[in-house]
């Protein structure tokens, strides 16, 4: 068995590995290389060392994007997880038509970000028109617009994960807690939540990285307006790369910095929540 | 439970790596949308990356005709509005790069100078009526860009509505001939705005939208006027390192008029698009619309008849502006990709010659696309676009045309800075001094950045 695997393993792992090499490793290495160069098209570059990185430091728009994105990620992570858990909790109760409700809540997730952005742009602008405003009036209009949009899109998706997690808790544990005199509130806080930590790890990971990486919805809803103040990091990188001749390398350097930040936060977050996981 | 937990952990870490790497990969990998220009490389082929979405279909049809006539494959791709530089940048990185692309003037050419072939031997250059219009290399030894369309902009107006205004008993200005300075324009606009219900319009001017599809009308085209007068007063030619902003109060005057006598509340401008402005004018909901000859396709065929479209100069309140004409120039230059194969470059030059000399090419350019060209081959092919006709009439009447100076604006970043400040001023979240800073100081810093 093992010998067969050794002999033929490459046949099964090979294609995927090749795709991973071509699709991820090569562009990743090329991307890091390009961040140290000056170029107009990616096939024609000259080495400039750390110049691109030093230009990031003086970029006020980038710094603004950074904290704006952090604020956005914190707000969406909290709102989405709390709401998704609440919906999942309700939809694991024996209520009529709960499968239908689960389907309906999940559905927004099936729509692409760009389309969703344009649809919400119409909706939000339509409502804001009552006060003679539009979504791009100030950075905070855009901020809350994006929060609403992302929550609407993601709550259903995370709800599915929480539903699976809640159903995985054995009834005996809940039953035992109830016999010991715990009320509903105590059961949720002291029994369910600790047992749900694996789901919470996955869900917070997804929301944190989604918040940081959000691009399509930002592009479609505000496109950074006004004055690039509602630009999240991914869009800022895109605009630096494509929007300013001579700044392609700086955009690339920002992408490297972005990678380091997202990877670091995701790993820390993973450590923190997995450390809280318990066994029943 | 244990399974789920370890799944979460390994899955999470794998996902961290994959997603984060993906974020980098997205910036560097070129997408592989087909451009179909491969094949028949031995004889050369043409791949034109078109700048103007409003004539995308016409170019595609013209390319097909050329291919059926000569057998040379011609591919035309069009970048969506406002994304030309983005598209060009990724297309140029491919092995089948565009053989023919566009730059918007000297500043645009600077970005792509390593990709610009010498065009001095081409028919397109020899047919230019005024060869000094072409873009040359810094030492003047090479011709790198050839303008192919002359465009004009000003304040497009609805003649029928304006005649109604002149006839009304509440109007002060009684004839289009008196409407030849800023004070008169302001009077007319203010009175129309005050009596908009009587005229059945929503406002004097269309919305001054600041969506990226529309903001260039103010941060670039309108900003040209204070620059034009400043350069004229100071005798500036070429690209100056600094500007004084002497005519900024005039810029403010005209901009105030646009946002006050408008169909739209200033606080809503940030989200208004060019389509909004087009439809307001096309449906006769506004009398004035600052735009150019290229807008004809978007505003014709609705409520406003072709005969009812006219164009006024943009008056900003400068002495002697009674003789000011429309704003005429070009920011559309053909450039042949010097890094394409010899055969492809030759095929591209031949295609351009065919476009400006054959019957099919000339009628497509003049009639279907409605362009006025700078070539001497278009004698019998005059555009039927009423806005182009208005532009030609203005030139013939002896008014001084205003030149296009925005080709020397130091960078897109400068335009964006001015645009952002203008919007903040319009919606009341910023004040005019920010526009002044972006205009004058922004110019100096962007010039330094671009020219060392």
TrEMBL record, chain A:
Keywords: Cell membrane, Membrane, Transmembrane, Transmembrane helix, Transport
Membrane spanning stretches: 12-36, 66-92, 104-131, 143-166, 187-208, 249-268
GO cellular component terms, semicolon-separated: plasma membrane
Location in the cell: Cell membrane
Keyword Manganese in annotation: no
Domain (ABC transmembrane type-1) ranges: 66-269
Membrane topology: Multi-pass membrane protein
Superkingdom to which the source organism belongs: Bacteria
SUPFAM superfamilies, A to Z: MetI-like
GO biological process, one term: transmembrane transport
Family per similarity comment: Belongs to the binding-protein-dependent transport system permease family.
Protein name: Sugar ABC transporter permease
Organism: Demequina capsici
UniProtKB/TrEMBL annotation, chain B:
Highest rank taxon of the organism: Bacteria
Pfam family, one: SBP_bac_8
Listed name of the protein: ABC transporter substrate-binding protein
Signal sequence residues: 1-25
Assigned keywords, A-Z: Signal
InterPro entries assigned to the protein according to its UniProt record, in alphabetical order: Bact_solute-bd_prot1 (IPR050490), SBP (IPR006059)
Organism: Demequina capsici
Keyword Transcription regulation tagged: no
């Amino acid at each position: 068995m093992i010998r067969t695997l050794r002999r033929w393993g490459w046949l099964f792992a090979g294609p995927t590995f090749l795709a991973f090499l071509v699709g991820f490793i090569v562009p990743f290495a090329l991307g890091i290389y390009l961040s140290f160069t000056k170029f107009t098209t990616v096939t024609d570059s000259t080495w400039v060392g750390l110049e691109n990185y030093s230009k990031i430091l003086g970029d006020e728009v980038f710094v603004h994007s950074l904290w704006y994105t952090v604020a956005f990620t914190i707000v969406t992570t909290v709102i989405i997880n709390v709401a998704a858990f609440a919906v999942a909790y309700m939809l694991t109760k024996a209520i009529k038509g709960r499968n239908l409700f689960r389907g309906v809540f999940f559905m927004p997730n099936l729509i692409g970000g760009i389309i969703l952005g344009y649809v919400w742009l119409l909706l939000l602008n339509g409502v804001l028109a009552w006060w003679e405003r539009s979504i791009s009036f100030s950075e905070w209009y855009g901020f809350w617009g994006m929060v609403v949009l992302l929550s609407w899109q993601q709550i259903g998706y995370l709800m599915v994960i929480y539903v699976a997690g809640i159903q995985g808790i054995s009834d005996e544990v809940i039953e035992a807690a109830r016999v010991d005199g715990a009320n509903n509130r105590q059961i949720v806080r002291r029994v369910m939540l600790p047992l749900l930590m694996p789901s919470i790890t996955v869900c917070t990971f997804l929301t944190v990285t989604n918040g940081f990486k959000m691009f399509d919805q930002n592009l479609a809803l505000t496109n950074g307006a006004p004055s690039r103040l509602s630009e999240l990091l991914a869009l800022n990188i895109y605009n630096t790369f494509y929007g300013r001749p001579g700044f392609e390398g700086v955009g690339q350097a920002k992408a490297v910095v972005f990678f380091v930040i997202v990877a670091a936060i995701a790993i820390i977050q993973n450590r923190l929540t997995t450390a809280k996981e318990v066994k029943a | 439970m244990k399974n789920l937990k370890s799944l979460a952990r390994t899955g999470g870490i794998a996902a961290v790596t994959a997603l984060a790497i993906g974020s980098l990969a997205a910036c560097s990998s070129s997408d592989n949308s087909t451009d179909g220009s491969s094949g028949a490389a031995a004889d050369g082929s043409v791949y034109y990356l078109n700048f103007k979405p409003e004539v995308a279909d016409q170019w595609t049809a013209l390319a097909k005709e050329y291919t059926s006539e000569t057998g040379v494959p011609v591919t035309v791709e069009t970048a969506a509005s406002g994304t030309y530089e983005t598209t060009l940048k990724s297309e140029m990185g491919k092995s089948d790069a565009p053989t023919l692309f566009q730059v918007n003037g000297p500043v645009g050419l600077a970005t792509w100078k390593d990709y610009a072939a010498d065009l001095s031997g081409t028919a397109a250059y020899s047919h230019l009526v005024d060869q000094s219009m072409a873009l040359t290399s810094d030492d003047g030894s090479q011709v790198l860009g050839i303008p192919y369309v002359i465009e004009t902009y000003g304040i497009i107006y609805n003649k029928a509505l304006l005649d109604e205004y002149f006839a009304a008993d509440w109007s002060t200005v009684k004839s289009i001939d008196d409407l030849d300075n800023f004070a008169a324009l302001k009077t007319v606009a203010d009175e129309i705005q005050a009596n908009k219900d009587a005229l059945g319009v929503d406002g004097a001017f269309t919305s001054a939208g600041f969506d990226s599809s529309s903001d260039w009308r103010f941060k670039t085209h309108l900003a040209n006027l204070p620059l034009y007068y400043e350069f004229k007063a100071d005798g500036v030619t070429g690209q100056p390192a600094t500007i004084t902003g002497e005519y900024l109060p005039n810029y403010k005057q005209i901009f105030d008029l646009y946002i006050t006598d408008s169909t739209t509340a200033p606080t809503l401008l940030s989200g208004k698009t060019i389509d909004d402005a087009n439809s307001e004018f096309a449906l006769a909901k506004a009398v004035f619309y600052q735009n150019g000859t290229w807008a004809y396709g978007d505003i014709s065929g609705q409520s406003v008849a072709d005969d009812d479209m006219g164009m006024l100069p943009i008056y900003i309140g400068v002495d002697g502006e009674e003789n000011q004409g429309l704003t005429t120039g070009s920011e559309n230059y053909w450039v042949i990709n010097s890094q394409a194969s010899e055969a492809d470059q030759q095929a591209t030059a031949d295609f351009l010659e065919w476009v400006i000399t054959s019957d099919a090419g000339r009628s497509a350019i003049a009639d279907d696309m409605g362009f006025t060209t700078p070539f001497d081959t278009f004698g019998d092919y005059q555009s039927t676009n009423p806005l182009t006709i208005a532009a030609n009439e203005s030139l013939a009447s002896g008014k001084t045309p205003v030149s296009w100076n925005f080709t020397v604006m130091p960078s897109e970043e400068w335009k964006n800075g001015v645009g952002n400040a203008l919007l903040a001023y319009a919606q009341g979240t910023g004040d005019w001094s920010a526009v002044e800073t972006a205009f004058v100081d922004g110019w100096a810093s962007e010039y330094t950045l671009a020219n060392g």
